[in-house]
Amino acid sequence: MSRLIVGVILIALLSACAGGGSATQKFIRDDNYTIPKQIRYSFTVTNTSNQLQESAKFWTYLPISQTAHQKVLKVSANYPYQEKHDKLGNSSIHFDLKSIPPYGSRIISVTVDLMMSERSVPAALENSSRFTSRENNIESDDARIVSLATSLKNESTPLMAKNGFDWVAQNINSDGYHAEDHGAVYAFEARKGDCTEFSNLLTAIYRAQQIPARVMGGYVFEGNGIASATDYHNWSEFYFDGAWHISDAQKGHFVEKQADYVAMRLISIHDNEEMPAQRFSFVGKNLHVEMN
After folding, report:
1. d(CA 267, CA 276)
2. Do 40 and 100 sit in the same domain of this protein?
3. Strand spans (E) along 141-204
């Protein structure tokens, strides 16, 4: 990211701070979503046995209904479905599949139309302590992370957020996909990780600085796109001046290209027991499920 772009971003954030707009930015304004976007994704559910599978249940995440950068307009699928929502605002789509023949399969296709916003749309922050405290894999109270966060402090929240972003981007190396999630402490000690470790560490640094921050999961692409399993990505967001802003140290995006990010999941241990899976889940004997 060029110095000119960084300067423009920081000036915009600092100007927003000088405006003191938090009192008037308690509600999301729908007219700020001006960029149309469509995401499509599909799964193959296969009966691996020589017996009829009378019933199989499958669910996966939908894009979050509304965030600082997206608003869902329409959901469609090739099978009947039900939508569910958890306490964090995550959305999921559920299918009840009937009569899958021996060694047969069903392809489930989901299409979601959204409107995106490049600028962060304001929204009220409820229960800020949720986003400034330690969570599993976000060890913001670890002495080493606290010390690092203290060394990166600045009177300006945007500059402090940029300092954390720069440190993670410059000191943590990408080393491929990890099947198991590791925490912020692991990333700090090993100086490596995948997108999950990048986002866990950066979020922990922000929380140690008392900047509300969270880890998001989803897909990143310009324009419309077809999502695949290998496209899944985690990033950090920090809350400042009444809005959430994207800070993705692995991809090098600090409050930029925000309309490219489709958030599928706010990742948190708080109240998230209803939807624990990373991308999808299913119930049924002798089933194999793959994202296409």
Report:
1. 9
2. yes
3. 173-174, 192-193
Using a 10 angstrom Cβ sphere, with 0-12 exposed, 13-18 middle and 19 or more buried, the burial of residue 243 is: buried
pLDDT tens digits, 246-287:
999 999 999 999 999 999 999 987 655 556 667 899 999 999
Sequence letter at residue 270: H
> Cβ neighbours of residue 261 under 8 Å, at least 6 residues apart?
69, 70, 216, 218, 219, 220, 235, 246, 248
9 and 38: one domain?
no
Contacts of 16 (CB under 8 A, 6+ apart): 240, 241
User: What tokens does 146 get?
Assistant: 């606290």
**pTM across the whole model:** 0.89
**Residue 207 domain-assigned?**
yes
Question: Rounded CA gap, 14 and 161, in Å?
Answer: 12
Please state, in angstroms and as integers, the Cα–Cα distance from residue 227 to each residue in 47, 178, 234, 291, following that order: 24, 19, 14, 9
